[in-house]
Amino acid sequence: VIDSLGLSIPIIQAPMAGAGGMALAQAVHAAGGLGSLPCAILSNDDFESTLKTLNGASNAPFNVNFFTHTAKPDDAAAQKRWRSALRSAYDAKGLDSSIDAPSVNRTPFSEYHCEQIEKHPPAVVSFHFGLPEASLIKRVKAVGCQVWSTATTVAEARWLEDHGVDAIIAQGSEAGGHRGLFLDPLTGDEQTSDDIGLIAYQVGTLSLVPQIVDAVSVPVIAAGGIADGRGMAAAMMLGASAVQIGTAYLFSKEATITAMHRQALWTGSAEKTALTNVFSGKPARSAVNDVMRSYGPMSTEVPPFPTAAAALGPLKAAAEAQSSGDYSSLWSGQSAGLAAALVLKHGQADNPPSAQDLTQWIAQDAQAAIAAVAKHS
Amino acid sequence: VIDSLGLSIPIIQAPMAGAGGMALAQAVHAAGGLGSLPCAILSNDDFESTLKTLNGASNAPFNVNFFTHTAKPDDAAAQKRWRSALRSAYDAKGLDSSIDAPSVNRTPFSEYHCEQIEKHPPAVVSFHFGLPEASLIKRVKAVGCQVWSTATTVAEARWLEDHGVDAIIAQGSEAGGHRGLFLDPLTGDEQTSDDIGLIAYQVGTLSLVPQIVDAVSVPVIAAGGIADGRGMAAAMMLGASAVQIGTAYLFSKEATITAMHRQALWTGSAEKTALTNVFSGKPARSAVNDVMRSYGPMSTEVPPFPTAAAALGPLKAAAEAQSSGDYSSLWSGQSAGLAAALVLKHGQADNPPSAQDLTQWIAQDAQAAIAAVAKHS
User: Fold this and answer.
1) Cβ–Cβ of A231/B207 closer than 8 Å?
2) Sheet of A273-276: strands edge to edge?
3) Of A276, A284, A368, B41, which residue is 20 to 30 A from B27 by alpha carbon distance?
4) A297 to chain B: which residues are within 8 Å by CB?
């Protein structure tokens, strides 16, 4: 399945909403990896132009990624509770916590997206938080797209295989950004509660990947904590058919992140990221900042995904205007330090490398790690 | 340093208090790995006879392991609060929650232990939760013992190297049993609080090992989630000098665990373990059972380590008398499923293999995994 994409390097660039678009995907593609376009926060116009650009690119393979959460109406009482918890932060910035903040747009995959994909089918359509309804999946597959989705547990992997996915992204707990979890780890039912205890169950990549490989017959893509050649080589040992890399690409010149975010990645360390729900309502890994320290990392006061982001909006805007990332999601996996070391090794700390170079460095270093260990064993 | 032990297989058997003693350590030694003796819950007599037995074994290398927590006096108010939280469980079992339960003995490394080690020095003395005071470390090293300790963060690894350890066990979040954490991940100070948010920061093995390898110059032993040849091969790619394996040995005939514990390991899965503080007061990974579901997995009501275990004692005894592990710590890493698969592959589900066989199977499968990937790359 993954072979059919004709990649010369089995690296999938992780789709990262807001952090990288066409330039990043094309740079990874140029190296021989698979570029991914995050579509969860695109307007309809931007989505259509993205698909047309991809199809114009001589049918080169790309991955188009969506969230599949159930959109929830704003819950005024929940919003009020969260804003009232945040009141001292609002006061400190001289902001009025009683004014409504605009809600945040994270669109789940829909009939509309499906129609556009039928017109301009990409090679891969991938999903986060499970899958859309079966009729939409069927239509996406009917026009020749591969369907991928993310599993954070063995049970989710089995569920995804049963629902027809062509490949599974095994997302270990090291990964930055949103956990793709959609089934309760204990009951196996759809995960709907906001039980903050869920983070005690998250499975590390080294443990998750081989257990998913053993449980399903579709190819498994390892994700979470892979940011250099050693991690890629390790994932191959675990039985992964490819690796998905996110955080390392945030060090590339094509990443569209703020200076504050870049700074946090460079100065962070493995243990200074945490799973937090304060930014969106769902657990996601971010470099630790003031809002996580003060109100989280996990909070029972946070409204459900994706509506939680609204209340932080004014605080984020005020902080960023003063060059502070104190209220911004600073998505980061636990291996940002490995990516930083890789960039330093190539002397490009002050001159961000292209994602094309990063892809090639990681693949070369993986080969070297495998050869070195094989020689001594 | 690890080479000087003369192991033919770079596998360290994890010391597991209560779950394996001399027979387990000797079986791993017989395979060419390093056997470990957990001493945190041994009486003085048992400790002395353990050391004498080891020294009698023609100076074969063994690892003797201790906890280094600061012993805390029982806090009557905290005990009362926890017992009152547990009252409905006591009532359901017809037990009186007002009767004092005996406190639980987990002895930190002491002057006494140091004296005994000076008389009968083992090859390696390893510690969990940091290190004992410098004067004791100095004496242990003076009689030729290697000193090892566990790091769960890069900062802890640097601290341990600065304090003179000969090797570092990098314990990823997948590991079963107690997290070795001793420094607050954010402040770098000694971790003294019982902030349950700490579990949001725990680092996966795939991410932790290479970052510690880059940060220190002593050998790094990878621990957490390694239960078969694939995990061992992956750890070697990450730069580990050896691996430490715990949960897989709980499937051996030498493991001294209850039938309930064995059952939980066989029927569990990666996502059905959690980090919990309900058993001891410190976060540790266990297969999920009733007490974790009802009162945890992390609870703010739990008294500090190691005094928390007392209140669960009567519940545990009553449940175990009915063949139930509902109130027992069922320590398990996230890769119990991989160990189960390994035992099944060798047709020994009903006839537990020796730890010697397990050690050899894992080492052979690691070689095979490395050779297979090297061939295709």
Assistant:
1) yes
2) A177-178, A284-287, A273-276
3) B41
4) 197, 200-201
Residue among A266, A101, A276, A271 at smallest CA distance from A199: A276
| Nearest one of A306, A358, A236, A371 to A75, comparing CA atoms | A306
Contact A207 B174 (CB under 8 A): yes
Q: State if pTM tops 0.95.
A: yes
Say if A368 is an interface residue toward chain B (CB within 8 Å). no
A186 touches chain B (CB under 8 A): yes
A370 touches chain B (CB under 8 A): yes
Tens digits of pLDDT across chain A (377 residues): 889 999 999 999 999 999 999 999 999 999 999 999 999 889 999 999 999 988 876 678 999 999 998 777 778 888 889 999 999 999 999 999 887 777 766 788 999 999 999 999 999 999 999 999 999 999 999 999 999 999 999 999 999 999 999 999 999 999 999 999 999 888 888 876 666 788 899 999 999 999 999 999 999 999 999 999 999 999 999 999 999 999 999 999 999 999 999 999 999 888 899 999 999 999 999 999 999 999 989 998 999 888 888 899 999 999 999 999 999 999 999 999 999 999 999 999 999 999 999 999 999 999 999 999 999 87
Tell how strand A284-287 and strand A177-178 pair up.
antiparallel
Three-state DSSP state, A289: coil
Q: At what angle do helices B355-376 and A229-237 cross, to 10 degrees?
A: 120
Residue B183 is classified by DSSP as B
Q: What is the ipTM of this complex?
A: 0.97
The residues pairing with A147 across neighbouring beta strands, listed in sequence order, are: A125
Q: Is the peptide bond before A297 cis (omega within 30 degrees of 0)?
A: yes
- Cβ–Cβ under 8 Å, residues A286 and A175: no
